[in-house]
Amino acid sequence: MKKLFTVLAVILVLVLIGVGIMQWQRGSLTDPLPPLGGQDPTETQVQPDHCVDVQLIAAPGTWESAPNDDPHNPTANPWSFMLSVTQPLQERFNPADVEVWTLPYTAQFRNINAQQEMSYDDSRNEGFARLEAELADTHAECPLTDFIIAGFSQGAVIAGDLASRIGNGHGVVPAERIRGVALVADGRREPGVGQVPGTQVGGVGAEITLQSLNFLIQAVVPGATMRGPREGGFGELDDRTFDICAPNDSICDAPRDPGNAIARAQALVEANGIHATYATNPEVIPGATTNQWLVSWATQLVEQ
User: Fold this and answer.
1) Which of 243, 249, 250, 253 is catalytic?
2) Does the active-site annotation cover 275?
3) Which residue in 84, 119, 123, 153 is the catalytic one?
4) How far apart are CA 177 and CA 141, in angstroms?
């Protein structure tokens, strides 16, 4: 009798094990597989309600900004070229949808006539760091916000350097979050890199012309390193980056042959009359001034 109970107990255990296996197999066939990374593949990415659809960032040129300037209402230089672009856009769009943000930085250029100013290297490094931090902070909080970036002169160098880093996969935001970049009078302009919406010019950016003569440049512009062309160009952003240069502007349309290096360096400091005419010069973009084109371009990108 004892043996009979033992046999029955063994049989009962085997039956229970078999039922458990069948239920597990049935469940494994009907239950969905767990998502990779612990996330639901149908989950839609969202961001806080206060985030804007587009942030338009403007980088002013030398002497057109200050480190303590209000990025939403800049007053450091009321004649800043970028104000002729940002103010019409602020009037056009609801700030709840489009944020217009102007880079506040020490936009200076130490030279033999202004030894008290911040050096070009330090100034643009400060501007670049602040610009990159703004994009990084905004993207971290608002991952679906897109960016439009525009810069003039020294601001164009800063904006172009940022676009190059992003386009080549080293930026603080992914390239697909950049709707467009516009560079006006870029000192590192290189023919064939980026798009040209207006007049084609035959020269190059002054930083390309003078790169090989950095040791001489320091005599006129101490602390200004001429860095030449941007390695990798604008990468993935090449088709969305527009380089605008007025013919004979010594900042962006310098001869490839440096010739008299000291004279070229002085021209870099003083620029020329043409460099200050982008808001009125009809030879840059046929049918419109540069600021008019920028307002129209940015409007189309916002409304796309």
Assistant:
1) 249
2) yes
3) 153
4) 14
Q: Is 28 an active-site residue?
A: no
- CB-based contacts of 296, cutoff 8 Å, min separation 6: 288
Query: Across residues 12-19, what is the average pLDDT?
Result: 39
Q: Quick one: CA dihedral 210, 214, 217, 222, positive or negative?
A: positive
Pick from 77, 142, 14: nearest CA to 276: 77
Domain boundaries, the chain: 54-303
| Calpha distance 153→205 (Å, rounded) | 10
Report the C-alpha dihedral over residues 187, 193, 194, 198, rounded to 10 degrees.
Answer: 70
Give this prediction's pTM: 0.82
* Dihedral in degrees, nearest 10, Cα atoms 192, 194, 200, 201: -70
Max CA-CA distance within the chain?
Answer: 116
Categorize the per-residue pLDDT at 99 as very low, low, confident or very high, splitting at 50, 70 and 90.
very high
Residue 289 to residue 282: CA distance in whole angstroms: 6
Mean confidence (pLDDT) of the chain: 85
Cα radius of gyration (the chain): 29
CA distance 124 to 112: 18
> What is the edge-to-edge ordering of all strands in the sheet holding 178-184?
98-102, 54-59, 146-152, 178-184, 241-244
The CATH number of 54-303 is: 3.40.50.1820
Does the pLDDT of residue 42 top 50, yes or no?
no
User: 130-160 pLDDT, tens per residue?
Assistant: 999 999 999 999 999 999 999 999 999 999 9
Indicate which residue of 69, 164, 253, 275 is catalytic: 275
The answer to whether residue 257 is catalytic is: no
Rounded mean pLDDT, 55-80: 97
